[in-house]
Amino acid sequence: MYASAFVLGFHGCDESVGERILAGHEYLAPSTNDYDWLGHGIYFWENNPERALQWAKFLARHSPKSRNRIAKPFIIGAIIDLGNCLDLTEASSLGLVRSGFDDMRHGLESNGLNLPKNEPGARGDKDLLKRKLDCAVINYVHAMRSDDANLKPFDSVRGAFFEGEPLYTGAKIMARTHIQVCVRSRSSIRGYFRPIS
Known about the structure:
By secondary structure, this protein is an alpha+beta fold. The chain has one domain. It has helices spanning 15-22, 49-62, 91-110, 132-146, and strands at 6-14, 42-46, 73-81, 85-87, 118-119, 130-131, 156-161, 178-183, 189-193. Helix 3 (91-110) crosses helix 4. The radius of gyration is 17 Å and the shape is globular.
C-alpha cells in the first residue's frame, strides 16, 4: 500500500465504446462478476496495450450476443493514480488478503457455508480463469475496511499474474504473465488517451 503512484493502463473494449469515452461522453463501467480476479472494479492491463487488444479480440470471438458485445476490438489508454493501493506484489497487502481469507473462511464455516472456489473458464483451463474465491476474498477485504471508520478505503488493487504455458522448455517465465490494475474509485482515472499503434 502506498500513497500515490501513476501507471499507464490499457483497456480493451468495442471501438464505439472507446470513442465515446475518449470524447468524454461516457465512463468505463465497473465489472461486478463473481469471478473477477481482483474483485469488483474497472480493469486495466498495466503498461500492456498488446494484451488489452488481445483480450478485446478474445471477447469479440467468445462473448455472447449482448449490448456489451465487442464488434470491433479497440483499446484506450488511461493515466491511473493508484492512490491507496492494495498491491498484491508487496508483503503488507498480501498479509491483509491472507487475514481477510482467514476471517471470511471462519465466518462461512461457522455458518455451515462453503468457500467459493476458483474454477476453469473452459475445458483445459489450467489457469482457473474464473477466480470466484479470489474475488470473494478481495471484496471481503474491501468490506472489512468500509466497516472500520479508521481505515481508508482502497482506491485500486494491483496484482501480477503468471499465466499460460512456460515461455520455453524448463522456464518459470510464463507466456502470458501480466500485471492487472483494478480501479475502484473513478477519480483514480486522471485521463484517457488514444494509444499510438
